[in-house]
Task: inverse folding
């Protein structure tokens, strides 16, 4: 995957499909096209609650993959993914220019370093106070007041720590089994499947992408996913990882074939033609608009539409204006 010419496009598209499959496992139906258009703020209809939930899964997948392997399993990563982090809020301490530091005496430099540390501490305390002052109590109708998410997450992290001696795949499915048993978060059960995929990535089994466990589990029958026997469930989860990898390979072959078909249109083209650059751009993301193409290729919107028409891309919105095209 690291050497694939469509690596970025494959990752971008699988983010969308896995997010939709996550909602499917929860009993909700979200079309990939609707989620792609919602992500680009080009909705053809009013976004539903299911679209918003799928978009939350999509953002979480992207955030996990953007970070270093293992970050999502840390306390900081879990706080960010569940919306409890205060990082980036407030203003930091004043920064002294490097040239001014060189003019200070050694004792003054120590005082300055200590002052910076105290300033950073004061800023952290101020951010905490601001967060606590603006926090509203959770509605007991929606949230169980006796549900201690912090304690449950710590219990889950302890369970994950006990799997470090196991093979990566078995450790990942054990982490997901523990998540389903402990239920750390009241309203984000889907996060456990993403964290199980991140466990594989952090152990080096998927270094260049985040495995699509939701896509793999969708292939399995519900009776296998929800089997009463723990061993049967673990085998089903392992099969889910296998099915997700197989589906990803099939999609990679399909999108590679689509790229080759588009490249046939480059025959007898001038070397200065922008069609080649357009093909690379179209394959790097699931959907493009005339404005996006015009900005990327430095052409006018009218020229962008003409280039898209030459490639014969499928239009996704069904509109006569504000149209978008893509390969999904």
Result:
């Amino acid at each position: 995957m690291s050497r694939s010419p469509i690596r970025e496009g494959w990752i971008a598209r699988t983010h969308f499909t896995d997010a939709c499959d996550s909602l499917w496992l929860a009993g909700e139906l979200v079309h990939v096209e609707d989620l792609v258009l919602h992500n680009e703020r080009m909705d053809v209809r009013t976004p539903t609650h299911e679209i918003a939930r799928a978009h939350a899964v999509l953002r979480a997948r992207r955030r996990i993959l953007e970070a270093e392997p293992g970050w999502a399993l840390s306390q900081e990563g879990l706080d960010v993914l569940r919306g409890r982090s205060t990082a980036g809020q407030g203003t930091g301490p004043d920064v002294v220019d490097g040239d001014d530091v060189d003019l200070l005496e050694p004792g003054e430099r120590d005082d300055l370093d200590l002052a910076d540390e105290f300033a950073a501490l004061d800023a952290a305390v101020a951010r905490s106070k601001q967060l606590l002052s603006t926090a509203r109590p959770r509605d007991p109708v929606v949230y169980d007041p006796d549900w201690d998410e912090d304690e449950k997450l710590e219990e889950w992290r302890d369970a994950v720590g006990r799997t470090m001696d196991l093979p990566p795949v078995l450790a990942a499915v054990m982490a997901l089994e523990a998540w389903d048993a402990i239920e750390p978060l009241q309203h984000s059960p889907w996060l456990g499947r993403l964290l199980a995929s991140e466990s594989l990535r952090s152990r080096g089994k998927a270094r260049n992408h985040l495995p699509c466990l939701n896509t793999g589990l969708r292939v399995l029958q519900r009776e296998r996913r929800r089997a009463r026997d723990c061993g049967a469930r673990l085998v089903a989860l392992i099969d889910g990882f296998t099915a997700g990898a197989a589906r990803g390979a099939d999609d990679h072959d399909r999108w590679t074939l689509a790229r080759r078909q588009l490249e046939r249109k480059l025959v007898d083209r001038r070397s200065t033609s922008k069609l080649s650059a357009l093909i690379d751009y179209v394959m790097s993301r699931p959907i493009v608009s005339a404005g996006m193409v015009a900005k990327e290729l430095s052409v006018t919107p009218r020229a962008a539409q003409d280039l898209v028409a030459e490639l014969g891309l499928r239009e996704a919105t069904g509109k006569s204006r504000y149209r978008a095209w893509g390969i999904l």
In short: Residues 230-263 form the longest helix (34 residues).
